[in-house]
Design goal:
Elements (H helix, E strand, L loop, with lengths): L24 H16 L4 E3 L9 E4 L11 E12 L2 E5 L9 E5 L2 E7 L5 E7 L1 H13 L10 H16 L4
Antiparallel strand pairs: 1-2, 2-3, 3-6, 4-5, 6-7
The structure holds nickel (II) ion.
Length: 169
């Protein structure tokens, strides 16, 4: 089931998510919804918090469904390693219409449980490392806008406030 994606300003997007205690049928159905919602958007990643569920789960698929082996599910993810730095433009399904350059690790290894409860470790570089960091931030209650500073951050948050006031956000 495709679920509505919450936008910047919704409480759950700005609050750290809690761990998944057990991979129940409800959790699996949530994961299915996250994948359907990510593909429908379309997007390359989605965190549970973005559909209003405060649990530590994210999905990533750089191919947006074109290559089945690209789909990854991480339940209770944790960092194994992160290093280097890359600067690229980034956006978020919860902040439609806005992009900004964000500093991210050039390489990141994340470990988490798959849908069947198997622990797996994946190394990402470039865009995949960026996606891992972006989605992990969501689970910690951080949106890419929160990583910006100064004028760039003020500009985006001011525009969002304006849109919210106008009922267009
Ligand atoms: Ni996002």
């Amino acid at each position: 089931m495709i679920r509505p994606i919450l936008r910047y300003g919704a409480g759950v997007l700005h609050t750290p998510a809690g761990p998944v205690d057990a991979i129940t049928p409800e959790v699996l159905s949530l994961v299915d919804d996250m994948i359907a919602t990510m593909y429908a958007a379309p997007g390359i990643g989605l965190a549970a918090t973005q559909i209003g569920v405060p649990l530590r789960i994210f999905v990533v698929d750089l191919s947006v469904g074109r290559t089945t082996t690209d789909l990854m599910v991480f339940i209770n993810p944790a960092w194994v390693e992160r290093d280097g730095m890359q600067l690229e433009e980034e956006g978020c399904l919860s902040v439609p219409g806005f992009n900004a350059t964000v500093a991210r690790p050039a390489r990141a290894i994340v470990r988490g449980l798959d849908r069947d409860g198997t622990s797996r470790e994946v190394e990402g570089t470039g865009l995949l490392a960026r996606a891992f960091q972006h989605e992990m931030d969501h689970l910690d209650g951080q949106v890419f806008v929160d990583r910006l500073r100064g004028l760039q951050k003020d500009l985006i948050t001011r525009k969002i406030r304006k849109l919210t006031k106008a009922g267009q956000w």
